[in-house]
Amino acid sequence: GAMKFTVAIDGPAAAGKGTISRRVAAEFGFAHLDTGLIYRATGARVLEGQDPLRAAEFLRLSDLERDDLRTPDVADAASQVAAIAEVREALVTFQRNFANREGGAVLDGRDIGTVICPEAEVKLFVTATPEIRAERRYQELTARGLDVTREDVLADVKTRDARDASR
Ligand code: C5P
């Protein structure tokens, strides 16, 4: 039968993990989880008034299909819920279940190769300077029609780096 095979792709936001992950998943027929989306979906539920821990514990794959998860407000809420230890623990379980599915899985996001899937068969680390990452995120946001400036996006990348680094 099918077997588990985990590819862990680590690195900071907007470094190019998503593009590489989608291509690896397509090439080998593996399922793909952008782990930033689970923090974003939890953050989106919290913006709607839910308790952060309940939002994380009751998260489902279908929550990741919401079309409002790429907004700056949701990104900020995601970064805030990601700083809560109990929320991270609940989301670790979610990620490990996904990683162990039969037929192979690609997971991308911070801590994937170190904390979430230390036993992954393949690990990659992808990074770039804050300026390059901010430019990538700026292009993504403006392509979605959002009204942002390069300066704001760079400031946001740096703020989130500082918050994630002090976690
Ligand atoms: O990567 P993305 O910008 O979608 O992630 C949103 C937020 O979720 C990040 O700023 C970070 O705080 C959190 N996150 C995390 N660990 C991951 C993925 C995302 O803490 N593996």
Question: What are the salient characteristics of this protein?
Answer:
single chain; 167 residues; alpha/beta; 8 helices; 4 strands; 54% helix; globular; binds cytidine-5'-monophosphate
Task: Write structural notes for this entry.
With 167 residues, this protein is of the alpha/beta class. 54% of the residues lie in helices and 10% in strands. The chain has helices spanning 17-28, 35-47, 52-57, 72-81, 85-99, 112-116, 130-143, 150-165; strands at residues 6-10, 31-34, 105-108, 122-125. A 4-stranded parallel sheet has the order 2-3-1-4, sandwiched between helices. Helix 2 crosses helix 4 (72-81) and helix 7 (130-143) packs across helix 8. The model has no long low-confidence stretch (mean pLDDT 93). Bound molecules: cytidine-5'-monophosphate. Cytidine-5'-monophosphate binds at residues 13, 35-36, 39-40, 75, 78-79, 82, 109-112, 160, 164. The site of cytidine-5'-monophosphate has 15 residues, from helix 2, helix 4 and helix 8.
Write down the secondary-structure element order.
EHEHHHHEHEHH
Neighbour order of strands in the largest sheet: 2-3-1-4
The major beta sheet can be summarized as: 4 strands, parallel
The hetero molecules present are: cytidine-5'-monophosphate
Q: Report the mean per-residue pLDDT as an integer.
A: 93
**Structural class by helix and strand composition:** alpha/beta
Shape: globular
Give a quick rundown of the structure.
With 167 residues, this protein is of the alpha/beta class.
